[in-house]
Amino acid sequence: MVDEALSAGAVARRLGVAVTTLRTWHQRYGLGPSEHIPGHHRRYTPTDLARLEIMRRLTAEGVSPAEAARWARQAPEPMPADAVARSRIRPPGRDGGGGTIPVGRAGPAARGLARAAMRLDAAAISETIARALTVGGVVATWDHLLRPVLVGIGDRHATTGGLIEVEHLVSRCVSEAFAASSRAAAPSGPARILLSCADEEQHSLPLEALGAALAEAGLTYRMLGARVPVAALVEAVTRTGPAAVVLWSHTRATADPTQLSALLAAPRRPLLVLAAGPGWRADTLPAGVVRPADLAEAVSLAVAVRDSLDQSRGA
Amino acid sequence: MVDEALSAGAVARRLGVAVTTLRTWHQRYGLGPSEHIPGHHRRYTPTDLARLEIMRRLTAEGVSPAEAARWARQAPEPMPADAVARSRIRPPGRDGGGGTIPVGRAGPAARGLARAAMRLDAAAISETIARALTVGGVVATWDHLLRPVLVGIGDRHATTGGLIEVEHLVSRCVSEAFAASSRAAAPSGPARILLSCADEEQHSLPLEALGAALAEAGLTYRMLGARVPVAALVEAVTRTGPAAVVLWSHTRATADPTQLSALLAAPRRPLLVLAAGPGWRADTLPAGVVRPADLAEAVSLAVAVRDSLDQSRGA
DNA sequence: TACGAGTTGCGTCGATTGGTGCGTCGATAA
DNA sequence: TTATCGACGCACCAATCGACGCAACTCGTA
Questions:
Q1: Residue in chain B nearest A162 by alpha carbon
Q2: Where would a tag sit more exposed on chain B, N or C end, judged by fewer CB atoms within 10 A?
Q3: What is the pLDDT of residues B56-104, one digit of tens each?
Q4: Percent helix, strand and coil across chain B, each to the nearest 5
Q5: Which residues on adjacent β-strands are paired with residue B6?
Q6: Which domains does chain A show, CATH number per domain?
Q7: pLDDT tens digits, residue range B145-159?
Q8: Which residues in chain B touch residue A10, judged by CB atoms under 8 angstroms apart?
């Protein structure tokens, strides 16, 4: 009594791909039900499903679909994922498809992440990010994995108008991963760095990346989050007296230099004010504000502030 | 005990189906009298009748007959459909206590959390929440600790206009805590529950609480997050075919019943559609939508859907 | 830098399959 | 005598089938 014979639709739903894709995988790669009479409906046994699961996992790791299919086809038992991840060089094989996210030459990991995102596979997304974080650290993960994928999703969303769910899901997973990373390497001591988004700015992911990078570098910080009004920001500065403040602006619309001036004029003026993000324009920044080019520079600036503080205190 | 043995015709008349259909249901789905000698007449006990009632109600709601039969067959005592029907009648509505600052009577932990929040002390906030989660679980923590504090902050913000940075910081810490909690008790298996905010709805914290509670209960879910347009939601539903969908609306402005109707009209209609949050109005909800009163009820409803398989053919 | 070739996911279309409710028929239990 | 039984078959409809094509991404080449 094997009631586990899943239909094509059920399997597609479980994997997160379209039904037509299942058919394509069957006829292109031979990844179909073990017994299938042409013309009749496909009935996937648990074994067939396991094969497809392998296919799903490998593609989520960035392996070319053709290659993944070859592996899945002759896979008597679940294979170690390490061996796969280790072989970074992909055999010649292009990639694409209507529902993919452009990641350029950001590497197979980014490609896999994009695929997992498209099928709303939160588990695979989180796993990929977590692995990248432990292997390459926060800065590298952000620059070479997360940012390309996020930019790709953003571009696609800007042109087609869709993919909003994908964007939200990925953002959430990234946020969670950063939070977990920060928590794992959480240093102690007073927080002397304040991270905040500009007023009306709702993209906080880059700031969270910075926070995770700071935690990784042994720095403590305070994160105010998105959409912080100037009054609230100044209020927080005067109350906590941070050594450095990072203000993130993603677009020009939220990059009001007045906010930076307000920071510089605050009662307890921070040693360092960083205007981070592509929103700021160099020629409109008030004097005394530093504009880091990328995540790495922001981190090194923060580290420098910490060192100078330690030195001045003679600790 | 055997005094009420109904004949096939009586049962058929009571259910509103043909007699032959009863026979069909017996031999196709095993939904027959508990003791039946082949060739003899069927005698339905009240228990058998209850099973058939479940079958009828589920199919009337649009559930696939095979699936409905599976529910009805393996229904010991607590029937999900019963819970569903019962929840239609709203239990005595408990609005979150009309006081100005409800934190006061929410216990010392809430008071301490509020104080840490005013201090912008992220570490203390996170620690308090984490301890509450491990001690009392997700539901209790949400109801007795987090919600009072969040409501209190929200009220303050509504009247004074300040505290935005506090609100953000606490939200972020809560979000992180839920993420960590979900990750710690992360079950495996295909996600059969979809969590999403209504269109334009940007409060996702309650949904994250629900997610954490589901993970705690051993359920997997998919979280779409805030501000999900109807099109994206329907797209995700048709793509992943969840058994249940929870749509959160915090305020009336975001509670458009059209979104629920769109869910019910989706190609692969979910078994259960939950309209969660104070935004929804009971009298405007389309038929077939359940409105849980609180977090605990939402969790129990989701648990009821757990064991459902999505294949439409029985053993 | 631009462009064509190879890859790949998936939408669309007309035809078919398979699940479902129920009517019918000869035989049988009540 | 009547209601029901088991078996068979039919009509309806959603899901799926196979085939085809589109769009988009990558990469090699000019």
A1: B232
A2: N
A3: 877 776 677 888 888 888 765 444 443 333 333 223 233 333 222 345 4
A4: 55, 5, 40
A5: B44
A6: 1-80 (1.10.1660.10), 105-184 (1.10.1240.10), 187-313 (3.40.50.280)
A7: 899 888 888 877 777
A8: 241, 310-312
